[in-house]
Amino acid sequence: MVDDLLLISPLLIVTVMGLVSLLVGVFAPAGSFKGWLAFLTSFGFLAALGACYMLWHETSAGAAFSSQSFHYSLTLDHFGLALCGVILLGALLATLTAVHYLPAQKSDHAEYYALIAFSALGMMIMVMAADLLTLFVALEVMSISIYILAGFKRDSSFSTESAMKYFILGSFASAILLLGISFTYGATGTISMREIGLAVAGGDAHSELALFGMVMLIVAFGFKIAAAPFHMWTPDVYEGAPASVTGFMAVGVKAAGFGALARLLLTCFGAPEYRDGSAVSWETLIVILAVISMCAGNLMALAQKNLKRMLAYSAIAHTGYLLMALLVVPASSDGEQALNALGGGLVFYLLAYTLANVAAFGVAAAVGARGVEDAGEEAYAGLAGRDPMLAFALTIAMLSLLGIPLTAGFMGKLTLFGELLSSGGGEYLWLVVVAVVNSVVSAYYYLRVVMVAYMQDESAEKPIALLKSAPLRVAVGVAAILTLVFGIMPNKAINASTRAGYSLVHTSNPATYGARVSAAKPAITSTVEPKDVAHR
Amino acid sequence: MQTGNAVESADFFTHAELLPWIVLLPLLGAAINGLFGKRMSKGAVTFFGVGSVVAAFVLSCIEVSRLAELESGALASTLWTWFSSFELHIDIAFSLDQLSAVLLLVVTGVGSLIHIFSIGYMRSDEGYWKYFSYLNLFMFSMLLLILGKNLLVLFVGWEGVGLCSYLLIGFWFKDMPKAEAGQKAFVTNRVGDLAFLIGAFILLFYSQGTLDFHELKQTAASMHTDQPVELTIVCLLFLVGACGKSAQIPLYVWLPDAMAGPTPVSALIHAATMVTAGVYLMVRTNFMFSASETAMTVVAIVGAATALMAATIALVQNDIKKVLAYSTVSQIGFMVAAVGVGGYVAAVFHLMTHAFFKACLFLGAGSVIHALHHEQDIRKMGALKKKLKVTRWSFLISCLAIAGIPLFSGFFSKDEILFTAFTTSHWGADPKMYVFGMLLLAAFCTAFYMFRLYFLTFEGEYRGDKHTWDHAHEETVMNIPLMVLGFLAAAGGLLGLPHFTHAHFLHGWLQPVLGFVKGKAPDGTPLEFIQVGGENAFTYVHDTNTELMLMGLSVLVAAIGILLAWRLYKRPASELPKAPVDAWWHRLLSNKYYVDEFYDATIVRPLRGTANLLHKVVDVGLIDGLLVKGPAKTLGKIGDGLRMFQNGDVQAYATVVVVGMAAALFFIV
Amino acid sequence: MLEQILFWLLAGGAILTAAMVVLPPVGRNPLYGALSLILSFFFISGLYVLLVAHVMAVLQVLVYAGAIMVLFIFVIMLLNLSDKELGQSRKTTAQFIGVLAVSAIAVKAIMVVSSATGSKALMAADAGFGTVDGLADLLFRQFLFPFELVSILLLVAVIGAVVLAKRRLT
Amino acid sequence: MTPLLASMSQTAIPLSWYLAVALILFAIGTIGVLTRRNALVVLMSVEILLNAVNLTFLAFARHHDNMDGHVVTFFVIAVAAAEAAVGLALVLGIFRHNRSVNVDSMTALRN
After folding, report:
1. Which whole number is the average pLDDT over D79-108?
2. Are residues C23 and C59 in the same domain?
3. What value of ipTM does the predicted structure carry?
4. For labeling, which of A17, A67, A93, B666 is most exposed (least CB within 10 Å)?
5. Is B627 within 8 Å of C93 when comparing Cβ atoms?
6. Which structural domain range is residue D42 located in?
7. Peptide bond connecting A235 to the previous residue in cis, omega within 30 degrees of 0
8. Contact B493, B410 (CB under 8 A)
9. What φ, ψ does residue A74 adopt, rounded to 5°?
């Protein structure tokens, strides 16, 4: 039992941090402990990151859960751990951003930190979930926490409205997700992902019913990851929510949604006839969603004047790029073949995306903390003169999102597109071309922000007071520096992502996963070592 | 497949420790000035900004002399593995071979001079530190581009110089049109980069995971036999990339607009270094171009057409920098055409001499503009030879060089291009003659418009206002670079004396990279041919008589051009010929063949129109009008213009989700 | 026969009362809608009984009808909306298209499920099916982890209600 | 098990009938979400959706003779309670700002 708890230690640490925050919030006198609380929570996230790091080294890439207690519900593999790392990083930086932002917004309540912790918990479980029920509950933990965080600025009608919109559409999407789970359950008689995969691959499932469920699941996750045409909530919610929350929402929800969607599709519907069979295939659907998302996101972003709203459309465009990563992972993977093309691009791209967005929203928080958040881009005019460091970080973030070399974003795109080309035998060359053309178009709106920050003079009549916050600067600075580091020396991170991709291929393949046995017996540990993917 | 190459690479390359420092020093300078420059004195900013580049030049000289001592191979230095996973292995690595050595010396040398010139030109500017920081950042990117051992490092530099040129054009000024010029430059460049990237991806697909230039030679050889079509596609995509960076048809439109930046920047980026990056790329991958006849043909035609077109536009421009800008486009067209006819050495030679005389011309223009308080219209200049002596002489020397007057550098390099185009065995006689003819005509135009510029600026009488004239003067710190560049513009041609002298130094120097082998044809005439491509190798014949005849022809053409300009423009102000503004040809030329308008009509406006249509139809129309307000109000709503996609109605959003879901369901199930 | 009659009564009742929530005449006043919804929940719990899901039927009445709907009615009473604040219902093309798409999906789904499961009647349930024993066994063994997780979820909901609904602290 | 309940479990009603009822309920709920302007009614429509899904889960559970569906239903009820609490709190928040719970009033965020 102790072993089991060790295996979920990142989850436990985050949960405990959330509970401690709540208790401190209740018993501490108003306004006295909030700063400490943020550091305590950050420390918790750091500890959880450390736990993830240790587990990473303890886990062989192909290992399933090697103990009894939770093996039905969780899959502990490198893929899940890597995404947990990304999520925790996002949560950590979002927490630091909030330390002085919340007081400036007059919303300094201890519950903020608890909710960040709990939503991070939900996200982490989402990417580890091994059955659809756990996945659903984790998704609800995440979503409900985020709904509340979006409306955290109670005094702002924008914030409340964004929360309400997110809530209505989100709970509708949850219902669609449930219907999808239900149809999948109906087609296969089980809610364990692996058994669904076996039934689907073995032809035991009713295919129309399973396909119906599959489409519903894709729609529901498409909503969470903001894939067009299920993206409509994104701009309104991103704009209305407090900037520190939006930053976390943009990166965490996306990482969790993509992680869960990738695992779900590959484990449950990895069988060739569901994947890239003639007409019925999720690959086709993903390709369509990817193209619509990147085109719609980029086109709409061109017209935006508000940084947060622009980043929302940018998030939609990046969903399009990220969806391409799902096409990379090979349908059947036995050892060598899998090495040619893995889903490592997904993990690395999410990492790059997380860092850039945290930096960008951090700057948005600093600029908007004094209540001009809803103003347009003129609020950023002359930022370079007012605060060169923030302007520099914003520039790095924009260049990374744009995909300029020597930033992590460039390496992310390179990995992603390179993998896609080498996996499909050139089949998806056209998609890569579409994506590259889109990233060229995106230069317009990303660079405009940089230009406004550097070129224009600050508007004279409305001088904006920047938020002076050391933790925020640390968060933004760390994100910007890491963006550069992962752009200049990305090899280790890319290798780790490749390992993560490998483990996803391995654990999601019913045949290589190691038999999942009936309730009475303990699970069998699968300890297939992968070939060292890092070196040729 | 990696191991064989790796062993060979290890043998081929000699380790060089100083190489990374050549690249890193300017980066260091940029970082110091960028981070602390605001608080440092101008002297300190100058020290780091200029010193780092000069130091890089010194290091370059040391390394190039080491390279010269090597018996074979090249210098290389690997910093760290950038990227190594599944099929791909890419290092952050630099290499210095004979080709990059030429560019390295040109870039660091001319770069140093322009940095020194900038001390004077930018002295009174409040953004002094920012300027040097960007300029150093540019040098860093350019050096990455030149020294990159593989295509990806080159691409980093490639993107970097584009970004820096954007920064230098756009950040400098507080008004929007100039910023938009920067954006136009950047986006046009991005179109080229896009083609380059796609080409690199295709190449990667066939090269088994390497992008190292040394190893790509095998790829090119195998693709020549197995995938000739793909090879041609890659070459053409690289050509588009080069067109973006080197301002060739159809992507040249950004360069004249880029003149909005400070003049030393125009000299450095838009004349001497960045714009030649496309030529460098094609020469660097010469083994691929040589193996694809189609690609070569397209390259030659693009180059020659650009050379002629830009030269004709330059005939009627009145802004001193615009003339030089179109002249640059035209001269790079010469280089590209040289690549297209297989004259890689000629291309590199002209690239070098052009860097000298064009940098000198731009700096001279800068000196004039500086002296006249930012007056750029040559109609308001004249007689400046009395005030700006050093400028005048260096400008005159450069004009003679670019016009192709014997013994000046441009004469030798331009002549070699013409000679190569005339004698190449690469294609049949007819198309070859078109290329040759276009280049010759362009050479005539060049001589004419350059001397028109010279006479209007420095001779005749002064046509501007008196006050400015009284204050016009030169500065020493700006004169030194002018003198050095003027000397180089005059003497640079000695590196490549005509072939009949058998003293073409550059030819021998570049031989290890460009793979020329000297030999004799069956009938005894000396040949030179390129190895790559086996039976596709092409020759050009050395015939002293032909060479001398061509020289005579081009001197004649240049002389006529100069004399014509002299007759027309060396006159008092009242007798200057009136521009025939109503003539159709004048309108065509002064409107630059309406290319900007053409792009506006075919690309920019449709794109903007699509975006607006999306707003009007999808946003306002479909969602707001059709879906929410009911069809009756739709039409009235469309006029509202920029009301956008999202109308804030959460239930309309939900409807989109449901409709999307229905579409997906009916599509899949 | 008895089952069939029961089924039709319960199913018809559930659909009718649910429709009354959504259709304007009754649902226009949210209070009537809520009452109608409670009725619908009772009918649905009857269907649960037919499906041999007795525990769920009980929970349905206890939690849904007993707790959740009471919360709804609380809020409705608290807001005490006047007729004017209820707003006019309006027809838009969006609604029309949405209803069309929903109907299409529903028809398609019904076709799929009927072809998937046929008209074959359900087999007799095993002994122990639907009992508290069976449910508890699953909940505390196989689904222990999500069970624990749901406690976090409820905690989050409590926090959320407090954070969002209470008046300013300071 | 009482005889009455036992006789009920011998039902002769096909699975698809239950599913059809559930899907009709789901459609009704969706229409409610899409068309009703009162945020409270929209929330109630979401409850209908969840009930419809529960019905399908129980029907499938009965079909497969496998109680996983019951467990899911159990959790869905818990989740519904949580969602209702948060949703109603948000409605109160919206009412505080707008003096209305009308969906139409929530259009401050738009392009």
Report:
1. 87
2. yes
3. 0.90
4. B666
5. yes
6. 38-103
7. no
8. yes
9. -130, 145
Q: How many CB pairs under 8 A join B and C?
A: 44
The total number of structural domains that make up chain D: 1
* pLDDT of C86 higher than 70: no
How crowded is residue A482: how many other Cβ atoms within 10 Å of its Cβ? 22
User: Do C110 and C29 sit in the same domain of this protein?
Assistant: yes
We report the CATH number of the domain holding residue C108 as 1.20.120.1200
Q: Show Cβ contacts of residue B232 under 8 Å, excluding neighbours closer than 6 positions.
A: B292, B294, B295
The verdict on a CB contact (< 8 Å) between D50 and A190 is: no
For strand B526-530 and strand B516-520, is the pairing parallel, antiparallel, or unpaired?
A: antiparallel
Q: What is the DSSP letter of B81?
A: E
Look over chain B and give the mean of its residue pLDDT values, rounded to a whole number: 77
Residues of B at the D interface (Cβ-Cβ below 8 Å)?
619, 643-651, 654-655, 658
Neighbours of A465 (CB within 10 A): 12
When comparing pLDDT for B6 and B18, which is higher?
Answer: B18
Question: Which of A345, A494, A318, A504 has the alpha carbon at shortest distance from A420?
Answer: A345
Minimum-distance CB partner of B654 among D34, D104, D108: D34
Residue D15 lies in a domain: no
Q: Is residue C88 part of a domain?
A: no
**Bridge partners of residue D38, in order along the sequence:** D102
Per the model's pLDDT, the better-predicted residue between C68 and A528 turns out to be C68
Query: Bigger pLDDT: A190 or A271?
Result: A190
pLDDT of residue B174: 60
The alpha carbon of residue B608 is apart from the nearest alpha carbon of chain C, in Å, by 28
Adjacent-strand bridge partners of A418: none
- Dihedral sign, Cα of residue B30, residue A453, residue A152, residue A170: negative
> Per-residue pLDDT for B538 more than 80?
no
Q: Which residues are registered as beta bridge partners of A131?
A: A192
C160 and C143, same domain (yes or no): yes
Nearest CA-CA partner of B487 in B217, B113, B156, B117: B113
Query: What pLDDT was estimated at residue A521?
Result: 32
Which CATH number characterizes residue D88's domain?
Answer: 1.10.287.3510
Q: What is the pLDDT of residue A522?
A: 34
Interface test with A, best of B657, B658, B659 (most A CBs within 10 A): B657
Q: How far is it, in rounded angstroms, from Cα A534 to Cα A494?
A: 9
Residue type, A400: S
Q: How far apart are CA A315 and CA A238, in angstroms?
A: 10
Binned at pLDDT 50, 70 and 90, residue B461 comes out as confident
User: Which of A128, A148, A155 is the best substitution to test chain C (most C C-beta atoms within 10 A)?
Assistant: A148
Q: Chain A residues with CB inside 8 Å of C141's CB?
A: 519
pLDDT of residue A283 exceeding 90, the answer is no
Phi, psi for residue A270 in degrees, rounded to 5: -75, -10
Residue type, B476: T
Does residue C120 share a domain with residue C72? yes
Q: How many CB atoms lie within 10 A of CB B381?
A: 25
**pLDDT tier at B485 (50, 70, 90 boundaries)?**
confident
Per-domain residue ranges of chain A: 10-508
Counting as contact any 3 or more CB pairs under 8 A, the partners of C are: A, B, D
For residues C54 and C69, state if they share a domain.
yes
B629 closest CB neighbour out of C92, C98, C105 = C92
Position D76 in a domain: yes
Tell me: the pLDDT tens digits for A327-378?
876 655 454 444 545 667 899 999 999 999 999 999 988 888 776 555 677 7
* Angstrom distance (rounded) from CA B105 to CA B56: 10
Inter-chain residue contact A179 with D50, CB threshold 8 Å:
no
Query: In whole angstroms, what is the distance from residue A230 CA to residue A223 CA?
Result: 5
Nearest Cα of chain B lies from the Cα of C114 at a distance, in angstroms, of: 14
Q: CB contact, 8 Å: C156 with chain A?
A: yes
- Domain with C77, as residue range(s), is 2-83+93-130
Indicate the number of domains in chain C. Answer: 2
Residues, chain A: 536
